[in-house]
Design goal:
The protein is of the alpha+beta class. The chain has two domains: 7-209, 3-Layer(aba) Sandwich (Rossmann fold), CATH 3.40.50; 215-310, Formyl transferase, C-terminal domain (Methionyl-tRNA Fmet Formyltransferase, Chain A, domain 2). It is built from eight helices and 17 strands. The chain has helices at residues 20-31, 58-64, 81-87, 103-106, 129-136, 170-193, 226-235, 304-310, and strands spanning 12-18, 36-43, 91-95, 112-117, 125-126, 141-146, 156-161, 209-210, 245-248, 251-255, 259-262, 273-276, 281-284, 289-292, 294-297, 300-303, 328-329. The protein has a six-stranded mixed β-sheet. The protein has a four-stranded antiparallel β-sheet with strand order 9-10-15-16. Strands 11-14-13-12 form a four-stranded antiparallel β-sheet, with helices on one face. α4 links the parallel β3 (91-95) and β4. It is elongated and about 70 Å long.
């Protein structure tokens, strides 16, 4: 296998690391750029070309294009360093690569090591940037930035906000962030190849960082406001992954999008089931009432009334949740 171009047409040597739809789309764009020679593709270690996943396989795409491809457990392995050095990259481009690059790797490219992150840095650094942006009430978005040894802390090249509407799920925002990320790539990657990429230092005051793991382990905190619980359910709606959860008498259930605040009701015990009809279940929250249409029980999506009936939950009973304790570090 070889790179996509050779000879005079190749101006800058690029290694692409990562996966998912945006990485595949960026690769296709680079294969059409006469000033780019993709000398290697390094998919995430768990990218199995034979597996059926919710996202396209970069490993499969590279193989189909007959590109030089490596798939180490981590690009940071000392034994892999000579491989990268021999490739003599001008640019390392990371798009959803699942490892933080170590300094000995970051120092290899002649021009830059660049990452595309689905968050408006310095907010939502780290894991699950789109869900956390929805939960926190911040605008989701995309940032292209230079990489340093920190977690999404490098100087910013460009950003694009992707505001979420009051009914959009994390998956829907992800789709729009993918389109925004490709737009940033098309606009700024050619400048990077010319050594003319913009650069501004990140403002860390007021920024956020979230460690790996599902937000609040997916548990609903019924003492939060109805609006906050709505945002939480939307933030955890990303098929095929499980969504926000609650339980009754140790029977776990997933609360499905959409849920919505309801008028009236006053203050009730959070989690208390106030009303059950064919069309919805009404649950008390910290500041009012919440309408729930559907619930998953044992992987089966059911009308909320039927799901509660199956677990023996009636009007006046209380659904269990877990109080939220943030694992964020400023």
């Amino acid at each position: 296998m070889g790179s996509c171009k050779s000879g005079a047409a190749a101006v800058r040597r690029v290694i692409l690391l990562g996966g998912k739809a945006l990485a595949v789309q960026a690769l296709e764009k680079m294969l059409r750029m006469p000033e780019v020679d993709v000398v290697a593709v390094i998919p995430c270690a768990d990218d199995d070309p034979e597996a059926r996943r919710w996202y396209p396989s970069l490993a499969c795409h590279a193989r189909e294009r007959d590109l030089t491809s490596y798939q180490p457990r981590s690009v940071n392995e000392e034994g892999f360093l000579p491989v990268i050095q021999e490739l003599r990259p001008d640019v390392l481009l990371s798009i959803f690569y699942d490892k933080i690059l170590k300094p000995h790797v970051l120092h290899v490219p002649a021009l830059a090591a660049v990452n595309v992150h689905f968050g408006l840095l310095p907010y939502n650094r780290g894991s699950f940037p789109i869900p956390w942006a929805i939960i926190d009430g911040n605008d989701p978005g995309v940032t292209m930035h230079y990489m340093d040894p920190g977690v999404d802390t490098g100087d910013i090249i460009a950003q694009m906000a992707v505001p979420a509407s009051a009914c959009e799920t994390a998956y829907q925002v992800y789709e729009r962030c993918t389109a925004a990320g490709l737009c940033l790539f098309e606009q700024y990657f050619p400048l990077l190849l010319q050594g003319r990429g913009p650069r501004r230092r990140q403002r860390f005051q007021g920024g956020t960082y979230y460690r790996p793991g599902d937000p609040f382990d997916r548990w609903i905190d019924w003492s939060q406001s109805a609006e906050q619980v709505c945002r939480f359910v939307r933030a955890l709606t990303f098929p095929p992954f499980p969504t926000a959860r609650a339980s009754f008498r140790d029977r776990e259930m997933e609360v499905c999008h959409p849920v919505w605040p309801l008028q009236g009701g006053g203050r009730r015990r959070p989690g208390k089931v106030i009303d059950i009809t064919l069309s919805r279940v009404t649950v008390a929250t910290g500041d009012g009432l919440l309408g729930v249409r559907t619930v998953k029980l044992g992987g089966e999506e059911l009308p909320a009334a039927e799901a509660l009936s199956r677990v023996g939950c009636s009007v006046g009973d209380v659904l269990d949740g877990v109080p939220w304790v943030k694992t964020e570090a400023a």
